[in-house]
């Protein structure tokens, strides 16, 4: 029954050869020629810009928006490639194992690169291995309730949650994600207790909210801007008032000392030459400061950022300390 | 409003717009036909160009690619038993047996006609019924998704025509495989064996290629050496005409499949693959000769293809009205709309009426263009399988490797594909149909998400029963589950001759 129909294995030799050929094509494509020693001359060949998420997502769109201007500024081709999986973890795990030759970049997202190694046993990379080049886009996280909700202010909402612990359902995207940690922060700062219901991504969690299946929603600023008429936004996690939602108060203004944001940038492998990082940083920051691109971002509900390599590194370390403390506290309480 | 309609029609009639859309359709068909390359990828490639394009040609082209790619998936499904896109899974069930009988052209013409009819119906639904249907889509909360996936699992009864036990085992294996990766709640790593690559879980497309294609290629080679008849195709006159007049006599089949497809499309997260499978299942259920399915019945191809192309229109309903992308390609369209400064929702129809209606009408036109291209291409495409096995087999294997790599640019996926190919070869010999396994893999994550979210809702409300069993839409779905699960018993009682025959493509 399980024989190969009386066929000797020899017959399958051509197949095995084809397999080897196909794999070598892939591996061949993945490995470019060696860098010549001697004077510093970068870039001289195609740069691969990996997006660790699916096509069509925000990180993907941003990379594709940058593709053409990057090519103009660097004078070489830039190829965008999607390597989705594990909320970005697969892409970052690949990144930290690559040659630091400057021809392999990967989009980086905060707090993902901080939270995944903290929350998972084997994320495949460590936060400090992700070597930042620049941060160019911020998405403050906001808290919204149903348009017909009895709560009109953040205070009322918090008080209600204290009165009925665990009975108010807050939707968001992912576990140990930006949204999840935002809610943990809110609970930690106020002592209120909510029931968090995670969805697999921003679109499904928005759908759950619009369908009335959750009482409140944590969402990124671009989604809030798009869906403004369908919700009451109680607070936003930016430091100052957010330009695209001028009437929404920040958490800080309402005496809750916290900020919450998803930030996007780009990173290279560890040990990359400083001069390479400088070149890339210059190109990315020029694009980030481009008036037309900034205007487009604001229109879509994003906060344009322009942080260089050093500034990004500091910011990541600050966030890491903050988030580690919250997670430790939550895990200690759970025990 | 009428002014917008006229503007829309004149936009589409512009030669440059029409031509670029037709090129999009052609490009989509080619990409869709290659296993591992998806509609989403083809559309993503175009995004950087849409920055500089006007909104009308940009959206028309993206729509054309989407329509073309979903049809294109049937080509590989029919010729080499490999769904070119996941939407074409159910097309393999009868499409490939037709090819084995030397009727590849019959299958391809059926697919062309049904896809065009289904696609047009889906696009008309999108044009005329979006707002009321979008509000139905929103009624689907976590409990409804849970029951919907349970309903989907009842399809196993149809797919496991050989042996119910093997079907159920297959479904169970599929569900288990879907658990690999990060838990949706709690975020633990499951079954990753310490490999960071497995955090991502198994890619459906990679498993499809492995399970459906590799065993077929191995059989091809076996047959060549054991002097069996190999598959071939001889062009004959009048096939196409005969098929189309046959299908026109079955309006109920096409209409039912298209309505199922459009409706499944409207529910965000349930894609063309589920649309095709549910529609195929209903075609078998309502057929007077259910035993003919799986052995090369054109009704099976028509049911799957009409549904998955109708799903395209359906999947854009929540996008245009609510700004929620119901499927991956719809997410790309959302991005393209945002780049043009157009926010989905009511204002799309009010402030950008001319552009929006141009796009909606162009989807109807794109489906007709696709049908014509596919119809005239069928004969030439069918000739591909006349290639000698010594050329065809290596070509197909080469494509599978490239395709499974391309889907996530991940070498691990190639290894997984080869592993599943070998497993699939053995299970095929043992009489397991790959359908139930794949069904479990598709529905597992939807069921699990629905279950854990519902349980959290129940915990918060203080009553699990209330969340799972008292919501109106849930009750309808539960009744559907019971009827669907009980159906084989009912029909077995009616004709007391249990089918013991092995499935032709098990």
**Measured distance between first and last alpha carbons of chain B:** 53 Å
Q: How helix-rich are the residues of chain A, as a percent range?
A: 40-55%
| Poorly predicted tracts of residues of chain A | 1-7, 32-36
Beta fraction of the residues of chain B?
A: under 5%
Indicate the proportion of strand residues of chain A. Answer: 15-25%
Please give the largest β-sheet of chain A: 10 strands, mixed
* Helix-and-strand structural type of chain B: mainly alpha
Question: Using only CA atoms, what is the Rg of chain B?
Answer: 22 Å
Q: How large, in whole angstroms, is the Cα Rg of chain A?
A: 23 Å
Could you give the distance between the termini of chain A? 54 Å
Q: H/E order of the elements of chain A? A: HEHEHEHEHEHEHEHEEHHEH
| Quaternary assembly | heterodimer
- CA-based shape of chain A: globular
Low-confidence stretches of chain B: 497-506
Shape of chain B: globular
Number of strands of chain A: 10
Strand order of the largest sheet of chain B: 1-2
Count every helix of chain A, treating DSSP H or I runs of 4 or more residues as helices: 11
What average pLDDT do the residues of chain B reach? 91
Q: How many β-strands of chain B, per DSSP?
A: 2
If you average the pLDDT of chain A, what whole number results? 91
């Amino acid at each position: 029954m399980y024989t190969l129909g009386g066929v000797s294995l020899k017959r399958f030799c051509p197949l095995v050869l084809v397999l080897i050929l196909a794999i070598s094509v892939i591996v061949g494509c993945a490995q470019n020629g060696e860098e010549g020693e001697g004077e510093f001359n970068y870039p001289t060949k195609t740069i691969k810009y990996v997006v660790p998420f699916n096509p069509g997502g925000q990180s993907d769109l941003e990379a594709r928006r940058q593709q053409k201007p990057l090519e103009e500024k660097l004078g070489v081709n830039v190829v965008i490639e999607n390597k989705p999986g594990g909320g970005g973890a697969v892409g970052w795990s690949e990144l930290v194992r690559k040659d630091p030759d400057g021809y392999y970049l990967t989009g980086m997202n905060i707090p993902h690169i901080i939270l995944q190694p903290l929350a998972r046993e084997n994320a495949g990379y460590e936060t400090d291995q992700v070597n930042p080049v620049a941060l160019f886009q911020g998405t403050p996280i906001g808290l919204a309730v149903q348009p017909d909700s009895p709560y009109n202010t953040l205070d009322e909402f918090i008080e209600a949650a204290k009165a009925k612990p665990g009975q108010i359902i807050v939707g968001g995207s992912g576990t140990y994600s930006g949204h999840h940690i935002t809610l943990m922060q809110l609970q930690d700062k106020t002592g209120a207790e909510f029931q968090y219901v995670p969805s697999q991504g921003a679109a499904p969690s928005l759908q759950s909210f619009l369908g009335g299946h959750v009482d409140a929603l944590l969402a990124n600023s671009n989604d809030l801007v798009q869906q403004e008429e369908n919700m009451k936004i109680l607070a936003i996690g930016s430091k100052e008032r957010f330009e695209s939602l001028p009437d929404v108060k920040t958490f800080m203004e309402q005496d809750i000392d916290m900020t919450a944001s998803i930030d996007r940038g780009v990173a290279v492998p560890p040990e990359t030459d400083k001069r390479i990082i400088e070149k890339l940083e210059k190109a990315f920051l020029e694009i980030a400061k481009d008036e037309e691109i900034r205007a487009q971002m604001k229109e879509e509900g994003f906060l344009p950022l322009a942080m260089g390599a050093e500034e990004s590194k500091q910011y990541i370390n600050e966030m890491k300390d903050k988030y580690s403390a919250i997670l430790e506290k939550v895990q200690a309480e759970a025990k | 409003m009428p002014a917008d309609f006229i503007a829309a029609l004149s936009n589409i009639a512009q030669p440059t717009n029409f031509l670029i859309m037709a090129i999009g359709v052609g490009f989509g068909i080619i990409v869709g036909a290659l296993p591992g390359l998806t509609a989403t990828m083809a559309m993503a490639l175009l995004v950087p160009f849409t920055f500089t394009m006007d909104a009308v040609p940009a959206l028309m082209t993206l729509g054309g690619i989407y329509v073309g790619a979903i049809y294109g998936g049937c080509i590989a499904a029919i010729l080499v038993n490999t769904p070119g896109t996941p939407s074409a899974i159910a097309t393999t069930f009868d499409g490939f047996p037709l090819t084995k009988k030397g009727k590849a052209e019959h299958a391809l013409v059926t697919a062309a006609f049904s896809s065009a009819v289904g696609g047009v119906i889906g696009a008309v639904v999108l044009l005329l019924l979006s707002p009321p249907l979008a509000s139905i889509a929103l009624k689907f909360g976590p409990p409804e998704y849970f029951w919907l996936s349970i309903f989907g699992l009842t399809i196993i009864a149809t797919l496991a025509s050989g042996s119910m036990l093997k079907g159920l085992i297959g479904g169970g294996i599929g569900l288990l495989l879907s658990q690999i990766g990060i838990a949706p709640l709690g975020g633990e790593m499951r079954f990753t064996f310490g490999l960071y690559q497995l955090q991502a879980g198994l890619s459906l497309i990679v498993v499809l290629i492995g399970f459906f294609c590799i065993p077929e290629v191995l059989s091809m080679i076996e047959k060549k050496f054991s002097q069996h008849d190999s598959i071939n195709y001889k062009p004959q006159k009048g096939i196409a005409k005969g098929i189309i007049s046959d299908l026109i006599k079955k309006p109920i089949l096409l209409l039912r499949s298209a309505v199922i497809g459009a409706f499944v499309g409207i529910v965000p997260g349930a894609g063309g693959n589920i649309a095709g499978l549910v529609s195929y299942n209903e075609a078998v259920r309502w057929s007077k000769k259910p035993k003919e399915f799986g052995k090369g019945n054109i009704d099976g191809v028509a049911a799957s293809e009409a549904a998955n192309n109708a799903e395209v229109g359906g999947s854009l309903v929540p996008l245009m009205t609510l700004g929620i992308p119901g499927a991956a390609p719809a997410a790309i369209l959302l991005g393209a709309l945002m780049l043009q400064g157009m926010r989905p929702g009511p204002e799309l129809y009010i402030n950008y009426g001319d552009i929006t209606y141009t796009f909606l009408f162009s989807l109807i036109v794109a489906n007709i263009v696709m049908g014509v291209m596919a119809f005239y291409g069928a004969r030439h495409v069918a000739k591909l399988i006349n290639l000698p096995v010594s050329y065809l087999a290596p070509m197909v294997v080469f494509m599978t490797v490239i395709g499974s790599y391309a889907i996530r640019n991940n070498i691990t996926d190639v290894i997984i594909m080869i592993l599943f190919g070998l497993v699939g070869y053995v299970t095929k010999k043992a009489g397991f149909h790959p359908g139930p396994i794949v069904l479990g893999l598709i529905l597992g994550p939807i069921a699990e998400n629905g279950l854990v979210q519902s349980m959290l809702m129940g915990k918060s409300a203080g009553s699990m029963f209330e969340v799972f069993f008292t919501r109106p839409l849930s009750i309808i779905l539960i009744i559907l589950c019971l009827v669907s699960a009980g159906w084989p018993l009912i029909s077995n009682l009616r004709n007391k001759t249990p089918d013991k025959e092995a499935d032709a493509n098990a």
